[in-house]
Amino acid sequence: MSLRLSTVILPYRRWHEGGRSAWTRAEQLGFHAAYTYDHLSWRSFRDGPWFGAVPTLTAAAAVTERMRLGTLVTSPNFRHPVTLAKELISLDDISGGRITLGIGAGGTGFDATALGQEPWTPRERADRFAEFVALLDQLLTEDAVSYEGDFYAAHEARNIPGCAQRPRLPFAVAATGPRGLRLAAQYGQAWVTTGDPKLYENGTPEQSVQALRAQTEKLADACAAAGRDASQLDKILLTGFTPDRGRPLESLDAFVDFAGRHQELGFTEIVIHWPIPDSDFAADQKVFERIAMEAPSQLT
After folding, report:
1. Which of 145, 172, 266, 276 fits a disulfide with 190 by CB distance 3.0 to 4.6 angstroms?
2. CA–CA gap between residue 103 and residue 111 (Å, rounded)
3. Among residues 55, 3, 5, 56, which one has the least CA distance to residue 30?
4. Backbone dihedral region of 278: left (phi > 0), alpha (psi from -120 to 50 degrees) or beta?
5. SS3 sequence, 62-89?
């Protein structure tokens, strides 16, 4: 199988001041998909412009035709399954069935306290995530849903006509721990990882490959326990968070070498960040575009 190449475009630019052009250019370059982060604010961008994921994706859907679109990733930190389901059904309709929902448990960043709540413990995040994914799956596949859980409720929630994609739009579940991997095996059409965060500062690329191999093996075990073949799930690597950092985008050869090593692990999609000057995602735009246009043919 050929390795698919996608990009993630952070929503930090006004739509008419570079925002729109990035999405249209991404389609021109032939990316399989273009994603965006679903945060209220994020790290070093907190004190600057930052726009909402769903309106951004809606606008992107209106100016593109073929490229898939989605979030990497949405989390329960400030979302409720009932309202999110309605937005996703609308977005899937507007895009003509091109939406993938990247979804994860969320972390302890700004989103975790923006609504005035105390940050959830890792266990509570995992508990909420499990309920969130299960309820969202139900909401996106049934016309009417009533549900009463430990964290979320729905009372005769209507979601007619449902997703353009059937039985629903695909979930790309971000997970590395046992509970998250079980959710990916049960509900996911894809699995997402950024690698092992413990290796980012002082690890080596070789250690990262070993860690990712271990993650894929655990995913296979989770799929087997759920009665699924792990080959049924796409495996997505969101780059920029492994010890390699930005080096794969320094040249076409560097990227092909990086992507090839991860393709051997079973990854079916590599996601690279659209260059942002003076940030952790700084890269030469010309080199980035050359990678987009030429790398896929070298990774068949």
Report:
1. 172
2. 14
3. 5
4. left
5. HHCCCCEEEEEEECCCCCCHHHHHHHHH
